[in-house]
Amino acid sequence: MTLPFALSVENLGVELEGVAVDIVDDVTFQVAPGEVLGLVGESGSGKTTVGLAVLGHTRRGARIARGKVRVEGADILALPTHARQRVRGRLVTYVPQDPASALNPALRIGRQLDETLSEHGFGTAAERRERVVEALGEVLLPSGSDFLRRYPHQLSGGQQQRVALAMAFANRPRVIVLDEPTTGLDVTTQAHVLETVRDLCAAHGVAAVYVSHDLAVVATLANRVAVMYGGRVVEVGQTGVLFHAAAHPYTRRLVEAIPELSGAHALVGIPGTAPRPGQRPQGCYFAPRCAYAQDECLASFPPVAAVGSGHEVRCFRHAAVLAESVAARPAASARPAIEVADALVAVQGVNASHGERQVLFDVGLVVRPGECVALVGESGSGKTTLARCIAGLHADYAGEIAFRGTALQPGSRSRDAELRRTIQYVFQSPYSSLNPRKTIGQIIGQPLRLFFGAGGADGRRRAVEALERVQLGPSVLDRYPHQLSGGERQRAAIARSLVAEPQLLVCDEVTSALDVSVQAAIVDVLAELQRELRIGLLFVTHNLALIRTISQEVAVMSEGRIVEQGLVDIVLDDPQAAYTRKLLSDTPSLEAALAAAG
Amino acid sequence: MTEFTADAAAAETLGARPGRAPWRVLVGATWRQGRTKVGVAITLAIVAIAVIGPFFAPYSPTEFVAPPFSSPSSDVWFGADNLGRDVLSRFLWGGRSVLVLSGLATLFGFVIGAIVGLVAAYSRGKLDDLLMRTMDVVLAFPQIVFALILAATVGPKLWLLVVAVALTTVPRVARVARGAAVEVVERDFVRAADAIGVPRWRILFGEVLPNVTGPLVVEASLRLSFNIAVIAGLSFLGFGLQPPSADWGLMINENKNGLTIQPWPVVLPVIAIGLLTIGTSLIGDGFARASSGIERGGGERG
Fold first, then answer.
1. Residue A54 near residue A232, CB atoms below 8 Å
2. Which residue in the set A450, A484, A524 is minimally distant from B196, CB to CB?
């Protein structure tokens, strides 16, 4: 008997233990052998919960309340615990987001791979050895005894993820769940890993569920895509169909929020925040944020409607959505032209080190008032170090960094208060840059008191003004960081920098910890600051697709050197450096993926 | 702007009430632990005995009321001690010294230890090494031996008892404070404060300290429990209050020879000291459980 589907999930429901609050409800999808299903959604949409449930597993505090997970026809949720454990790693395997935490740091690579096989009673030692070599070969890793004897920390992040992939494929499973396995990787490494996943799934007929928030990645990899919102699958369809002619308003908004290399479209964020478990409204969960919402949407959750072959959607208004052409995306607004002005900050011949290791080599860069310079590079290229040298957070450098013609001292504490005020730095992660024990009001009040002695009513007025600039209401002043979403936190962090009335804002990967819909809104806020307040921006990012939307100039960094810099359009359209070309071709792009898919 | 209003509305629904301060949440969660309630009840009872007990004492603690080691009777409820004084009266009078001395010693040791630990964590480098290695040297002396050496050189003085016990408390608190703070000083909000030039002491006490209160409070309760026992032990050895004062530690020492004929003058203070240490550590334990629960749950629950 052959089944059309290797994996079939039926009416899956996962709830919080004790309080019976649904995290995930009514999730149904199938995956055929050799097919890759992309499971996309923003943080809190329940995509990881579904990914884990496919293995019959939940995070602590949650339990699978309803539904079936059939692997080759057999419901693994009905199995007793020990039988389920035998299925895991044999029939269904898992590739985690962070391979460094998934591999045992105390065991050699060869031993760990061997254990995966012997745990499931695979052959003799010699046969296992043979399979290990084969599995490593498949993920394009060396399989010599020299490599097998290494410990995980001796491998790069990309190699670690490949080892995790090799472990997942070694037992020739029927189903594999990949939970954002390329999030921590560079674009080049990511491109290789994605290719490996696709090839292996096709070669061995493995059904893959690829959990990700990155639609561009999913577009390059997945055959079909399921979009999750508020713990439910709101739309499923062929990848091309879903991105070209989505029938759910949420899917359309998500697609609009993806930055594109061509920068032809304006980035449009989705206002509001996704409802958390326990706070989901009656009716369609997306209705409060939906432009198409009508009375019926508020009354009950829409049923599944088929709108094409294999294309299903849960929206009452799908006909109206489909009637509207996707091409109606707003075009990008013109970026402010570069004016000839004296440099705000000029970096010249800077060499910087972390201890013994030199990370910046003879770097030069200029940012003018009202201009945005994007600093692009992979992790470890030294872009954050350069940003920190300018902001005074990294003092170990030689060379000159001048601000309005005056040389800056290395280290913020040796600069005067005026300079500390005019150069502000926004950190990558708003989860770590806001003190969890202080209210947003106290956090924003700190620079106000320090630089202007502004407290009380005056301080509050200035704080509210800054919050308005980043599109937050005054009510957040009395909140603690943990009560805000990631996007709101990052806005609060930007507001903290704004109250200092800076002339230069150094933004270090400020959107990389956020969802795409939120990223678009943050980029919007920054562009407006640049236009209205004429603040100079240094926008550090690894995402090439973002820079055309926000910056006029770009500097590409690789291994501590700036390999190419110039106007964004010129550099992106006609890259001169081989490194820039490689970076461009490896960046996953929705447009390119869809064009290739025809 | 439509986006602004939509977002503000979303923020409004997100949590209509302004945030409860994290420490309030923590105190609430601590109180909800059953063990905290038991601990607080026990501690309050013993503290009440020590503080207001003297007002209810039937006799003066130094008055001779019955033959030595007489058994309990209707006049002397818990009998008489080795010199024929009322056991109950001496017990009611004898708690103050233990409580005050151990409280003071813990307070001083805790404050100095927390400062040393925070400064070490934040400064890193040479100052860190210097401070923490000094702490290690102090830590190398057993607590009682350290106090004995001090008492033997200067003589049995009460302030010396406090200083000795406080000094031995310092390194233990400092280690915990440093351990917790080392991770916090690496977080970006400390860097952010550094970058805009917030004074270092304000970073330490305004940014770092509020994030290490959990482990510090747990350590404080642990140290208090220990110090109660140590102070009682030192009084037992004769380095605390001198006869004829009433003191729990002293009572045990004076009456240990009559334990078989008249156990009460030993049993009462032993029970009180035991219960006190159990009570304070139960409170600390409740706090530890509550704070780890909150860390796991990621903020307020339900």
1. no
2. A450
The pTM for the full model equals: 0.80
Q: Is A587 on the interface with B (CB under 8 A)?
A: no
Q: Which of B241, B249, B302 is nearest to B274 (CA)?
A: B249
Q: What angle do CA A235, A237, A238 make, to 5 degrees?
A: 155
User: Which residue of B23, B187, B197 is in closest CB contact with A450?
Assistant: B197
Task: Say if the Cβ atoms of B19 and A439 lie within 8 Å.
Answer: yes
Structural element, H or E, at residue A405:
none
The answer, for A392 touching chain B at a CB cutoff of 8 Å, is yes
Q: Which two tokens stand for residue A64?
A: 């699978």
**Nearest alpha carbon to residue A95 among A243, A194, A17:** A194
Integer Cα distance of B297 and B212 in angstroms: 18
Q: Are A345 and A366 in contact (CB under 8 A)?
A: yes
Asked whether the beta carbons of residue A427 and residue B9 sit closer than 8 angstroms, the reply is: no
Q: pLDDT tens, A289-307? A: 888 888 888 888 899 998 8
Kindly indicate the confidence band of residue B39, based on its pLDDT and cuts at 50, 70 and 90.
very high
Determine the Cα angle at A117 with ends A111 and A122, to 5°. 135
| Nearest residue to A175 (alpha-carbon basis) of A293, A72, A42, A68 | A72
Nearest CB neighbour to B198, from listed A424, A450, A480: A450
pLDDT tens per residue across span A570-580: 998 899 999 99
State which amino acid sits at residue A277.
P
Cα separation, A254 vs A267, whole angstroms: 10
Strand A553-558 and strand A561-567: pairing?
antiparallel
How far A259 CA sits from the closest chain B CA (Å)? 19
ipTM for the complex shown: 0.79
Do the beta carbons of residue B57 and residue B93 sit within 8 Å?
yes
Task: Judge: B12–A475 Cβ closer than 8 Å, yes or no.
Answer: yes
CB contacts, 8 Å: B12 with chain A? 473, 475
Q: Angle B143-154/B158-184 helices, nearest 10 degrees?
A: 140
Looking at CA atoms only, how far is residue B106 from chain A in angstroms?
A: 26
Across the interface, do A432 and B4 touch by the CB < 8 Å criterion?
A: no
- At B134, the amino acid letter reads T
CA distance B270 to B256: 11
Name the nearest CA neighbour of A384 among B188, B107, B272, B146. Answer: B188
How does pLDDT run across A66-89, given as a tens digit for each residue? Answer: 999 999 888 989 988 888 888 888
User: How many interface pairs between A and B have CB atoms less than 8 angstroms apart?
Assistant: 116
Q: Check if A122 contacts B (Cβ < 8 Å).
A: no
Whether the CB-CB separation of B168 and B138 falls below 8 Å is answered with: yes
Q: Among A359, A382, A379, A378, which Cα is nearest to A583's?
A: A378
User: CA A583, CA A560: separation in Å to the nearest integer?
Assistant: 16
Residue B24's pLDDT is 83
Identify whether the C-beta of residue B214 lies closer than 8 Å to the C-beta of residue B291. yes
Query: A322 to each of A245, A247, A269, how far by Cα in Å?
Result: 7, 5, 20
What the block records as the tokens of A68 is: 């079936």
**Higher confidence at residue B17 or residue A103?**
A103
pLDDT at B16: 38
Phi, psi of B141 (to 5 degrees): -85, 130
